[in-house]
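note to self: dont lose this again. the chain is below, predicted strucutre after it. 82 aa total, dont forget to put it in the shared folder this time
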Amino acid sequence: MTQALSPAELYQRLETLETRLVYQEHWLDTLDNAVAQQERRLEKLEHISALMRERLRDQHQNPSNHDSTTTLRPEDDVPPHY
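---
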């Protein structure tokens, strides 16, 4: 039960398919860029997390680090409401 399509109908169907393909390629590129950006952010966050774990481990291993000869950094200062 296949009906023969006119050249104009075939052209219209081909144009519709090409248009859909272009949109799909655009969305794939957009998604690829988003995934790549998220991967870079995740790598940064993992690096920060590793640095924080290392710093916390160092603080726990050397509790005497906070004597009078050590200079405290602003990020080490606990706000008064804690």
